Amino acid sequence: xxxxxxxxxxxxxxxxxxxxxxxxxxxxxxxxxxxxxxxxxxxxxxxxxxxxxxxxxxxxxxxxxxxxxxxxxxxxxxxxxxxxxxxxxxxxxxxxxxxxxxxxxxxxxxxxxxxxxxxxxxxxxxxxxxxxxxxxxxxxxxxxxxxxxxxxxxxxxxxxxxxxxxxxxxxxxxxxxxxxxxxxxxxxxxxxxxxxxxxxxxxxxxxxxxxxxxxxxxxxxxxxxxxxxxxxxxxxxxxxxxxxxxxxxxxxxxxxxxxxxxxxxxxxxxxxxxxxxxxxxxxxxxxxxxxxxxxxxxxxxxxxxxxxxxxxxxxxxxxxxxxxxxxxxxxxxxxxxxxxxxxxxxxxxxxxxxxxxxxxxxxxxxxxxxxxxxxxxxxxxxxxxxxxxxxxxxxxxxxxxxxxxxxxx
Length: 409
Hints:
It is a single chain. The protein is α/β, with parallel strands linked by helices. The protein is built from 14 helices and 11 strands. The strands form 3 sheets. Strands 3-2-1-7 form a 4-stranded mixed sheet, with helices on one face. It has a 4-stranded parallel sheet with strand order 8-11-10-9, with helices on both faces. Strands 4-6-5 form a 3-stranded antiparallel sheet. The radius of gyration is 32 Å and the shape is elongated. The two termini are 60 Å apart.
């Protein structure tokens, strides 16, 4: 059996001997025949690519000598007047990449360091082959990278991203994923540095290419707080891939234009808050506007407590100015104590007052989610007061809301 080992090395095992690039022409001829084995290779084609600057008569003589040498070295060849092809069982390490664990492959670089100079035509062929192999590897790696990212598996994301950069040093998908992964494990500066290096490498000539990295860099700088020094480092976030994947799918639904409500249920200390924190951090990197609020036992008896706490921050978000003027007035009355209230706001009963506040809150969310996804996280939701629960239920049932996700834990 003939074996071509081309990832991280360059050698052909014929079963009788080992061909390497220092066997200049015989290695090149064997490599061409092995990689083009799906067809009969024209003798004239093989001769012209190996000796492009030699006349036809001398090419023919050199080809006959090379074919004879390849047979002596262990290759089984079928040769006729017009063509030559390699026969027998042939194994290559670039076959069936989809069925392999690419993380276990030490190097995914195709024929590293192999740069033949004896023939420009052959060197061009090698470059085309290398580009095709690397494109296939990159496609497979980025598919697995996207899957790992969708699962919230940041360890796999880092490993796959680095593998991808081995074969494509400016692969946008890998760079963005590695920057996100760095931020998710607390490395804000590292994430920015990854993007800065990438932006430097691609240059300033094409703003369209630079845009995704530039946007992510701004989100990291603006949305991710600087890590605070701690005597006891936070343990790695592990073992919640299934839950994170579930949340990320709901985030995709919200980003596509729907309203979604999620509830995290579990025993105290099981990790709901950490899961929520990691999810909110990732959502911020996707450009989602995130607001988090916590409930306390006393809030059970405080009407609309969660909205009283939320509204001031929501009013500072982009889009809030799109509310009606009456909405802003009613929201101010909800959140600010006025010792001399305006008598024009005098609903006849509690139901009317709730209806007016509800309309104002709905109008606020309409304005906020017009163009950008908004994620509201409510911690310790068991302490929600009845009126807040009623308001949340109404929001969940309103199909008109776009790009809105409530996360209760």
